């Protein structure tokens, strides 16, 4: 699935991931391939990308974590909104 993370200043990330964990207003939620379309507000917390690797141009924006042998790349946000449909997602955040 393709995810794009944008702030008012720059593009934080754009690329393919296996899934993404987001900090929702009512708790974390996980978007995976073939997830139903959704638009949701986000609260402060970590956006976690589950992927084999990410492009070096974006790696500087992320903290690399390991969870159960899976590569996880996290980016901390203050708030935002996500729109996800047809395996494409846009996260607008600050």
UniProtKB/TrEMBL annotation:
It is found in: Endomembrane system. It is a peripheral membrane protein. CDD domains: F1-ATPase_delta. Residues 1-53 form the ATP synthase F1 complex delta/epsilon subunit N-terminal domain. The keyword Manganese does not apply. InterPro entries: ATP_synth_F1_dsu/esu (IPR001469), ATP_synth_F1_dsu/esu_N (IPR020546), ATPsynth_dsu/esu_N (IPR036771). It comes from the Bacteria. Keywords: ATP synthesis, CF(1), Ion transport, Membrane, Transport. Belongs to the ATPase epsilon chain family. Produces ATP from ADP in the presence of a proton gradient across the membrane. This is F0F1 ATP synthase subunit epsilon. It comes from Chryseobacterium formosus.
């Amino acid at each position: 699935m393709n995810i794009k993370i944008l702030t008012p200043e720059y593009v934080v990330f754009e690329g393919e991931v296996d899934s993404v964990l987001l900090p929702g207003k009512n708790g974390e939620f996980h978007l995976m391939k073939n997830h139903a379309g959704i638009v949701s507000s986000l609260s402060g917390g970590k956006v976690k990308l589950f992927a084999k690797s990410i492009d070096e141009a974006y790696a500087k924006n992320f903290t690399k974590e390991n969870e159960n042998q899976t590569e996880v790349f996290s980016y901390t946000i203050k708030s935002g909104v996500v729109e996800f449909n047809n395996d494409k997602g846009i996260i607008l955040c600050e």
